[in-house]
Amino acid sequence: MKVLIVEDEPKTAQDLSETLQEIDPSIQILGITDSIEGTVNFLAYPPSPDLIFLDIQLADGLSFDIFKETTISCPVVFCTAYDEYALQAFQTNGVAYVLKPFSTADVRLALEKVKNLATFYRADSPDLRTLAEAIDTLRGSGGLKSNFLVSFRGSFIPIPTKEIALFYILGEDVCLQTFKGNTYLVPHSLEEIERMVGVQQFYRANRQHFINFDLIDSVEQDFARKLKIKPTVKCPDQITVSKAKASEFLHWMDAR
Questions:
Q1: What integer pLDDT is reported at residue 4 of this predicted model?
Q2: What pLDDT does 79 receive?
Q3: Cα(232)–Cα(225) distance, integer angstroms
Q4: How far apart, in whole angstroms, are the C-alpha atoms of residue 130 and residue 113?
Q5: In 100-172, where do the E strands start and end?
Q6: Backbone angle region of 72, left / alpha / beta, with phi > 0 → left and psi within -120 to 50 → alpha
Q7: What are residue 190's phi and psi, to 5 degrees?
Q8: More confident site: 89 or 180
Q9: Distances from the Cα of 28 to the Cα of 14, 25, 46, 74, angstroms
Q10: Cis peptide bond upstream of 160, omega within 30
Q11: Alpha carbon of residue 224 to chain centroid
Q12: Against a cut of 0.85, is the pTM above it?
């Protein structure tokens, strides 16, 4: 297994390298990078890693920016001294999360989780490339998200996109509501979510609401030629479509 370590504390990076090879002598440390720029440059050339141990807080910013600069197709184990980024980590290629200061047992558990996931997706061989393909599949066909990972009472829960009735703004927060009536906060703007799930199944009814087609029971003409949506489940407030978007909205409904 070829591993890339991204860590800006030299002692921690060396400790992690030695720990990995102590746990599994067959592990090959491809390299150690200490910045976003250095990691992007490293990944631009072969060989590609099978697994990345990635510190979240680097000297030049949060390592999540690496995913904006280059495509990472392998699983990632995030390492950090803080747990506040756990949700964001699992919305990338994150498959495990190790808190600093880590122990040999922590690293061993992370490696076992990676290998177990790989084995799950390909029973004949624990191939980490297969795990990478599985991660892409879980994101949904065409690059669209097939689920959202939400935090609830200390746990992380995957919510399938098809089970989400709508996304909406509440104060300064963005929430999702399932068809079962459960509500969770999501760390994305409605604009970001629109890019994540596409506009085949969801529609931006107005500034506050991004709705699933299956939420619509019927549509009524409202005052000032607005459209009022009668939902299939109870929503936090009335959902309307403006006069300017009414024709486009009805066309979207009919085109499906």
A1: 97
A2: 86
A3: 22
A4: 14
A5: 147-152, 155-160, 164-170
A6: beta
A7: -65, -30
A8: 180
A9: 14, 8, 14, 15
A10: no
A11: 40
A12: no
CB of 114 within 8 A of CB of 77?
yes
Cβ count within 10 A of residue 68: 8
CA-CA distance, 201 to 224, in Å (whole number)?
27
Q: Which two tokens stand for residue 42?
A: 């490293």
Residue with tokens 């690496």: 66
Cβ(176)–Cβ(202) below 8 Å = no
The region of weakest confidence among 83-97, 123-137, 196-210 is 123-137
Radius of gyration of the chain (CA): 22
Q: Quick one: tokens of 29?
A: 């440390």
Write the single-letter amino acid at 6.
V
Which helix H or strand E contains 109, and what residues bound it?
helix 104-121
Name the strand (E) or helix (H) holding 77. strand 76-80
Characterise 88 by phi-psi region: left (phi > 0), alpha (psi -120 to 50), beta (else). Answer: alpha
